[in-house]
Amino acid sequence: MKKIILSAAFLAFAGLTAANASEVKEPVAITVKQDSTTKVPVELKDLPEPVKATLQTEPVKAWTPTAAFLVTNADKSTYYQIDIKKGEETASVRLDKDGKPVK
After folding, report:
1. Count of beta carbons in the 10 Å neighbourhood of residue 9
2. What's 31's DSSP letter?
3. Does the residue 62 lie in any domain?
4. How many domains does the chain have?
5. Contacts by residues 10-16 (CB-CB < 8 Å, ≥ 24 positions apart)
6. Could you tell me the residue range of the domain that residue 71 belongs to?
7. Are the beta carbons of 63 and 17 closer than 8 angstroms?
8. Which of 10, 24, 42, 57 could, after both became Cys, cross-link 68 (CB 3.0–4.6 A)?
């Protein structure tokens, strides 16, 4: 008798599991964020005058600019990333077209 009850319980559980597995649920939307930031090289001599002026102020003027890039974010905002060097140290500065620091 125990075998019959256990078999019936097992079949009932298996039937419930099968019923749940075949239920159609709402599709889940999977969103993938892509980094759509673009970085275009810019000649140091072609930087806007306000950016050049900021590079000549303290404390940045002690550093030497080595490369510059125009960075465009996904939201279409832009800034200039200027790589700078002082001895063996390297860093980068982010400035908008008006020469103001960008966070």
Report:
1. 10
2. -
3. yes
4. 1
5. none
6. 38-95
7. no
8. 42
Choose among 78, 70, 83: nearest CA to 102. Answer: 78
The secondary element (H helix, E strand) that includes residue 9 is: helix 2-21
pLDDT of amino acid 24: 56
Position 32 scores a pLDDT of 53
**Which of the 8 DSSP states describes residue 98?**
T
Q: 59 vs 32, 62, 82, 93, CA distance in Å?
A: 40, 6, 14, 11
Residue 68 forms part of a structural domain: yes
- Token pair 């090289």: residue: 41
Q: Which residues of the chain have pLDDT under 70?
A: 1-35
Task: Extract the tokens encoding 76.
Answer: 């279409």
8 falls within a domain: no
